[in-house]
Specification:
By secondary structure, the protein is of the alpha/beta class. It has 13 helices and 20 strands. It is 32% helix and 23% strand.
C-alpha cells in the first residue's frame, strides 16, 4: 500500500466549501493517497475575534503536513482585518507564486488559441512588504524593498521550473529604466543566474511594453518571472486573456511549506447554488500532487479534466452554445471528471509531469562574495514644511551648514527644486534635503548626522525621517533626483 501523504485542507468561505468538496471528490476517485487534516480559516475565524483569519492551532497543522490546499475566503470589510493570503505567505516564507495561464481553444473562448504562459511572481517583498507611513498632511509613502537573497530565490526557481517542465525560455519584467536600484538589482541578478542556464533562452523587457506584448502576443512568452506587484497584476491579466480567471490554479512555494489554491475569490453571491466552477481549485490541487511527488495521479486528474472540457461538459461560467454540449453544476462537473479518469484529451495537449525538486533554490547557488566596503558619505533629511518657497527653505537650511556638512540639494516628490529650481514645478509639503561633506570625497560619521539633526530641530524644522547615503566599494548606493 502506498505511503499516505498528509495535507492540510481549508474549505474557505462563499463557494469555497462547494468547490473544495468537488476537488476532493476527484482526488479520492483518482485514489490519491492523501491524509487530510481540516482547519477553519476565513470569515468565521475573523468574526470570532482573530484579525488574521487563522487560529494559532492551525499553524501547527501546516507545519506538520507542509502542504496546504486552500479554498478562497471572505475577508470582512472594515475592522482592520489582515489579508490571510499575505499572512500565510509571509509567516511561512512562500516566496514563489506560480500561475500557469493556458488557453483551451476551441472549447473556451480566447483570442490567443496557442497561449501557454507560466507567471512566476516573487511573493514576499517589493511594495508588498507593506511598510507604509503617513509622513505629512499631504504625503504618504510605501517602501519598495528588493533584496538580493529574495531575488536570487525566485529567479532561480523560475529557471529550474522551466528546465523541469521542458520550457524553452525565461523572461524577466522590471521597470529598471526608472527604478534603477531596486528593479535594477532584480534585473542584474536575472542576468547573473541566466548565465548558469545556457540550455534556456532568456530575455528582459521593461514591464510596460512587456505587459503590452503579453496582452497582444502571449505566444511570444513561456515562463515570465517578475517582482511582486507586477506579478500580481499580470498573472490575473494573463489568466483572463487565456480564457478565464476562474480556470487558473496557483501554487505558493516555500522551502518548508507550500500552499495551493484557485486565483479567484470566494464569490459569496454564487454560494450554495451548485453553480461554481471548481476548475481553478482542482488545477491548484494538480500542482499540489506534482509538488508532493504524485505525478501519475496529477496526470490522471489533469487529463480527465481536459477530456471533460473537450467533451463540452461545462459549468455556467464557460458554457457557450457554439461548443458546449451540457451545462452542469459543481457536483455534476466533478462527477464528469471522475468518470473520465484514465482518459486523455483528443485535441487538447495531454499533460505529462516530472517529479518536482523540492529545493531548487539550493542548486548551483553561486559562491558567496565578500561583503563590499560600505561608507557613509551623506544624509538625506526629510522635512514636513509649509512655510514658504523652495528658495526660502534652502536659505534657512543653509544657515545650518557646519561640522563638515553642507546642504547641496532640495527635492520635492523626486524633482530638484533648489538650487536653480523651476517655477513651474508643483510642490507638496514633503521635502528631501541632501547634506554632503564640505570637502569633495569626504566621509561622514553618525555623530555628524546626529549633530546636524540637532541643529535642524533646534531651528524649528520638523524632520520626519532620514536616509543615510552610502557607497559600496565606491559605487553610489542612492538615486539622484530629476534635475540633479
Amino acid at each position: 500500500m502506498a505511503e499516505r501523504i498528509p495535507i492540510t485542507v481549508a474549505n474557505g468561505d462563499g463557494i469555497g466549501p462547494e468547490i473544495m468538496a468537488a476537488t476532493l471528490r476527484i482526488l479520492e476517485a483518482a485514489q490519491a493517497p492523501l491524509d487530510i487534516e481540516t482547519i477553519d480559516i476565513g470569515e468565521k475565524v475573523y468574526l470570532a475575534g482573530n484579525s488574521s483569519g487563522i487560529e494559532a492551532s492551525s499553524w501547527d497543522s501546516l507545519r506538520r503536513t507542509k502542504v496546504f490546499l486552500k479554498a478562497p475566503i471572505t475577508t470582512p470589510q472594515g475592522g482592520g482585518y489582515k489579508s490571510l493570503n499575505v499572512t500565510v505567505r509571509k509567516v511561512l516564507g512562500l516566496y514563489a507564486n506560480v500561475r500557469p495561464c493556458v488557453a483551451y481553444h476551441p472549447f473556451i473562448e480566447t483570442k490567443h488559441p496557442s497561449m501557454d504562459v507560466v507567471i512566476v511572481r516573487e511573493n514576499e517583498e517589493d511594495l508588498y512588504a507593506g511598510i507604509e507611513h503617513r509622513q505629512t498632511n499631504q504625503v504618504v509613502q510605501c517602501l519598495k524593498l528588493i533584496s538580493r537573497p529574495g531575488s536570487e530565490k525566485i529567479i532561480r526557481y523560475a529557471f529550474e521550473y522551466a528546465r523541469r517542465n521542458n520550457r524553452k525560455k525565461v523572461t524577466c519584467f522590471t521597470k529598471d529604466n526608472i527604478m534603477k536600484l531596486t528593479d535594477g538589482l532584480f534585473h542584474k541578478i536575472f542576468d547573473e543566474i541566466a548565465a548558469e542556464y545556457p540550455d534556456l533562452e532568456n530575455e528582459h523587457w521593461i514591464v510596460d511594453i512587456g505587459a503590452a506584448k503579453l496582452a497582444d502576443t502571449p505566444e511570444a512568452f513561456d515562463v515570465v518571472v517578475m517582482p511582486n506587484l507586477y506579478g500580481d497584476v499580470l498573472s490575473d491579466v494573463a489568466a483572463q486573456i487565456a480564457g478565464s480567471v476562474g480556470l487558473a490554479g496557483s501554487a505558493n512555494i516555500g522551502e518548508h511549506v507550500s500552499m495551493f489554491e484557485a486565483i479567484h475569490g470566494s464569490a459569496p453571491r454564487r454560494a450554495g447554488q451548485n453553480l461554481a466552477n471548481p476548475s481553478g481549485l482542482l488545477l491548484g490541487a494538480v500542482m499540489m500532487l506534482v509538488h508532493v511527488g504524485l505525478t501519475d495521479h496529477a496526470e490522471r486528474v489533469h487529463n480527465a479534466w481536459l477530456r471533460t472540457i473537450e467533451d463540452g461538459i461545462h459549468t455556467y461560467d464557460i458554457y457557450d452554445d457554439k461548443v458546449s454540449k451540457q451545462k452542469v453544476g459543481t457536483k455534476e462537473f466533478a462527477e464528469a471528471v471522475a468518470e473520465r479518469l484514465g482518459q486523455e484529451p483528443q485535441l487538447l495537449k495531454p499533460r505529462k509531469y516530472k517529479k518536482a525538486d523540492p529545493s531548487p533554490t539550493n542548486r548551483t547557488t553561486p559562491a558567496s562574495k565578500p561583503a563590499p566596503q560600505k561608507e557613509l558619505v551623506g544624509v538625506d533629511v526629510f522635512l514636513d514644511w509649509t512655510s514658504g518657497s523652495a528658495n526660502d527653505l534652502g536659505d534657512g537650511l543653509s544657515r545650518l551648514n557646519g561640522d563638515g556638512l553642507k546642504l547641496t540639494m532640495i527635492s520635492n516628490r523626486g524633482v530638484k527644486v533648489w538650487p536653480n529650481g523651476h517655477k513651474e514645478t508643483f510642490i507638496s509639503d514633503h521635502w528631501r534635503c541632501r547634506f554632503l561633506p564640505e570637502s569633495d570625497g569626504g566621509k561622514v560619521s553618525h555623530a555628524q548626522v546626529i549633530s546636524l539633526l540637532g541643529r535642524v530641530a533646534g531651528d524649528g524644522f520638523d524632520f520626519i525621517k532620514t536616509e543615510g547615503l552610502y557607497t559600496f566599494d565606491g559605487q553610489r548606493g542612492f538615486s539622484l533626483d530629476q534635475g540633479e
